[in-house]
Structures are given as C-alpha cells and as structure tokens.
Amino acid sequence: MKIAITSTGTTLSSTIDPRFGRAAYYVIYDIEKKSFEISPNPIKNVSDGAGPAAVEFVAEKGVEKIVSGEFGIKIKDLLDSLKIQMITVKDHSKTIQDIIDMLNNQLK
C-alpha cells in the first residue's frame, strides 16, 4: 500500500506540510516495501484548482491514503470517489519519520 504524506522538505526529518494542494513536497511511502520517494509538488503555484490537481497527481502514484495537516473543502468528495482515505494530522510539528512510524504501528 502506498501512502502520500505532505512534506515541507526533502528529508524524513522534515515536518508535515499543513497544506494538501499547495504542499511543498509529497512523500510517497510504500508500507510493504518500507521505501519512499519524495516528489516536488508541481501544482503548488497554480492560481486555481490546486487541490483537485494534487489529488490527480498523487492518485497517479497509486496511493490509497493521504496524510496532511488540512484538506480543502472540495477534496473529500473527490477522494471518496477514488477510494483514497484522508488522514488529518493536527500537530504540524510532526516529522515525516514520526508519521511513518505511526502508520507502521497502526498497520501491525
């Protein structure tokens, strides 16, 4: 299973980016392989429609869940239609490693 995590930077010590559609980076974590890739967000600077375009971007990566600080109001129905689960993390000081550890512990 692949999970997208919004990130402020390019390392596992980077913190979660509170913005889904305009996140700086997406960490695509493969929970079975325990591997990840970090992709810059090509949509972050568009003037309109960043959220739906970001959903399309991460959906093309094959994710089943997305972890972010916040999601825009238009995103829930779109993610539901694609059967992608939203996970909201309110503590924006959490690192990507913290979130990966949390996900691994939940799925044990």
Question: How would you summarize what this structure contains?
Answer:
The protein has helices spanning 50-59, 75-81, 96-106; strands at residues 2-7, 25-30, 35-40, 63-68, 85-88.
Number of helices: 3
CATH class: Alpha Beta
Provide mean pLDDT, rounded: 94
CATH fourth-tier homologous superfamily? Dinitrogenase iron-molybdenum cofactor biosynthesis domain
Strand content is 25-35%
List low-pLDDT spans: none
Instruction: Give Rg in angstroms.
Output: 12 Å
| Quaternary state of the chains | single chain
The helix/strand series, from N terminus to C terminus, equals EEEHEHEH
Number of domains: 1
CATH architecture: 2-Layer Sandwich
Structural class: alpha/beta
Q: Strands of the largest sheet, in order across it? A: 3-2-1-4-5
Task: Give the overall shape, derived from the CA principal axes.
Answer: globular
Let me know the largest β-sheet.
5 strands, mixed
Helical content stands at 25-40%
- Looking at the structure, the CATH topology is Nucleotidyltransferase, domain 5
How far apart the termini lie comes to 13 Å
Describe this structure in words.
The chain is an alpha/beta fold and 108 residues long. It has one domain (2-106): Dinitrogenase iron-molybdenum cofactor biosynthesis domain (Nucleotidyltransferase, domain 5). 26% of the residues lie in helices and 26% in strands. The protein has 3 helices and 5 strands; from the N terminus they run E-E-E-H-E-H-E-H. The protein has helices at residues 50-59, 75-81, 96-106; strands at residues 2-7, 25-30, 35-40, 63-68, 85-88. It has a 5-stranded mixed sheet with strand order 3-2-1-4-5, with helices on both faces. The mean pLDDT is 94.
